Amino acid sequence: MRVYLDNNATTKVDPIVFKKMEPYFVKMYGNPNSLHQYGSETHPALKEAMDNLYAGLNANDEDDIIITSCATESNNWVLKGIYHDHIHNGDKNHIITTEVEHPAVMATCKFLETLGVEVTYLKVNEKGVIEASAVEDAITDKTALVSVMWANNETGMLFPIKEISEICKKKGVLFHSDAVQAIGKVEVNLKEVDVDFLSFSAHKFHGPKGVGGLYIKESQPLTSLLHGGEHMGGRRSGTLNVAGIVGMGEAMKLAVEYLDFEKSNVKKLRDYLEDELLKIEDTFVVGTKEERTPNTILISVRGIEGEAMLWDLNKAGIAASTGSACASEDLESNPVMEAIGAEADLAHTALRLSLSRFNTKEEIDYTIEVINKAVKRLRAISSTYSYAPSWHKSGL
Ligand SMILES: Cc1ncc(COP(=O)(O)O)c(C=O)c1O
Questions:
Q1: Which CATH architecture has domain 15-257?
Q2: pTM of the model
Q3: Which of 6, 99, 201, 257 could link 121 by a cystine bridge, Cβ 3.0 to 4.6 Å?
Q4: Which CATH superfamily is domain 3-9+260-380 in?
């Protein structure tokens, strides 16, 4: 059996999405900016896709949704754009973010620091989230932007985005949220949560890779990252990825339709998996079930290197992860586990299991069986684990 439990890394393209995209590769392949029929025949599908994106985020007509190549681009654009517009020649010099952002935010902030920007990386608590009040305390009259993720990619923990957005409004500071791990898993309603910028990526919600977006509230100015042929109203140049946009629009429509299913059926399967795995001695999960996206578990299995567990799982046909796919080629410990203050040996034991609407109970039962066997095998040969009862369960 093959079981895919790495949906926070990327997801399967929904066959409905794929079918919708197909004609735009082989039949209607024109450049939408061309004046001939090949160009214009792409327009209805592009409009439908954009309508789905606006509806999915509950955005206003005055807001911009600009298509990018991925969320890494969207995050880079916001941070570098803010540097250009408000810091470079202005009187601001400060950005606030968290210590558990995805590398697409983290590495960009580190880069901006080399240009003289002051960045505050807010510390997370033992559940891996920040308190909204920490943002308020960190804001100064030099703060140009607050950037806080909607949901964490490793733990699934949801951040207090509504409260943070209210604080930013009150203080007159721009607010960006990386919502890559939230869309399709929890409601992202921009009429209820007032953000200035929001990043997202189609391949995380059963759309294609290579296409993402940046929501920009009420056409807020933001200097372009890609200059060129003035596509997307001059905000982001480059020939439109028609099939990708069509796919992302359809994926967003389905994400909205499946939200209740995600909250009930996917969550039920995730909770079942979690409960069964927590029956294994000396395991713990970061954050509570209700405060996380319904599909994610970050579990620590004491005494077992995450990579060793992945090896056993992979041999049995199960795909999981030790954390962010972008950082998973090195054997470093899980950065979120480190941030929450896990002991050094525990930070190496992280196993991330992330489900989707395509997983079945049969697959989850098989996974439980395989993990139980792997734990027995790996603990028996582990030099750091002993079944001695003296081990204290509090762990953290
Ligand atoms: C929270 C978060 N932000 C950004 C990204 C980057 O997305 P993309 O692959 O579209 O560049 C990811 C991907 O793992 C993510 O989980």
A1: 3-Layer(aba) Sandwich (3.40)
A2: 0.94
A3: 99
A4: Aspartate Aminotransferase, domain 1 (3.90.1150.10)
